[in-house]
Structures are given as C-alpha cells and as structure tokens.
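User: Let's play a game. I give you a shape written as tokens, and you guess the letters that built it. Ready? Here's round one.
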C-alpha cells in the first residue's frame, strides 16, 4: 500500500523507511520530510556576483564622470561578424560620438574597443590597444572581472580628464 492510502480500517499507513530516498525520514506525525540540495538555476548564467556588478557599474560611472566620455560595456556573444556587431552596438548608444564601447565575448575570445569620432580624439588606438592587451592578459588567467576593471581604468587614464569649456 502506498503512503497516504487508507487501509480498510480507517488508519493511514506510514511508508516503510527502507523505501525512502536518502535524506528522507518519517516524522512522528507520519509526514515524510526530505532534505534536498538547493541549486540556484541561474548560478552558471551570471559570471559576476552582485557586488562585482556594482563595482563594474561604479567603474563605468567614474570613467564617464572623470573623462566626459560615455563608457559602456558589452559582455556576450558577438555573432559571426564581431566587428560588425560591435559597430551596431556602438551605433545604438546615446550620443555615440563621445561613446567608448568595450565589447568582450569570452567564448569567442574576442575583445574590441570602439570609440566614436569625438572619443577617438582623446583615446588614440595605441591607448585602446594597451588596455585590450591588459584585459586579455587577465582573461587568460581566468580573471574576467579584474580584466574588465583594469581595462576600464586604463582607458579612462588614456583619455585624460574632462575637457573644460569656457
């Protein structure tokens, strides 16, 4: 007779403890209590902790505030033609002329920095290449978060402080 079924005498029949899975017990009240390992289904979908996300957001904010350029970060697949996809993403940014987009696709092993026309005047290709090399070195060591942080700092340093208007 299965658990919870009534016998012919009106009493509930408790399951045999031998039939229970590991981690399950029958409580004194007759209820089956089972322990299960909790696994967050989203753990593998997010490469950063909430604290790391907050620090990346702060790094983007500080780089933007210090330089007057608009820094953005894209992390994900860039499709079959990464340079074209990066250009599309950059074009979709607000005031793309002073925008700096850092696009990283870890699975494809692609890192691109694309600057708008105004940003390019302050952030030369050589400076962007140095930042990319630094990021790639960190990525090779398995430090995606640290690589992004140091790359953003390097790009902001290369761009220099906010230009003053008179």
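Assistant: Ready! My guess for every position:
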């Amino acid at each position: 007779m299965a658990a919870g079924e009534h016998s012919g005498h009106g009493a509930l029949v408790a399951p045999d403890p031998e039939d229970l899975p590991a981690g399950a017990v029958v409580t004194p009240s007759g209820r089956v209590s089972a322990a299960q390992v909790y696994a967050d289904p989203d753990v593998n979908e997010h490469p950063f902790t909430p604290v790391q996300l907050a620090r990346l957001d702060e790094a983007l904010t500080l780089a933007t505030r210090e330089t007057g350029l608009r820094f953005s970060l894209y992390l994900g697949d860039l499709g079959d033609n990464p340079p074209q996809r990066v250009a599309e993403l950059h074009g979709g940014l607000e005031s793309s002329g002073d925008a700096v987009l850092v696009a990283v696709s870890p699975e494809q092993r692609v890192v691109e920095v694309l600057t708008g026309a105004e940003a390019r005047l302050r952030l030369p290709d050589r400076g962007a290449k140095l930042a990319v090399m630094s990021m790639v070195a960190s990525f090779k060591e398995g430090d995606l978060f640290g690589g992004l942080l140091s790359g953003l700092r390097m790009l902001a340093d290369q761009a220099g402080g906010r230009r003053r208007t008179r």
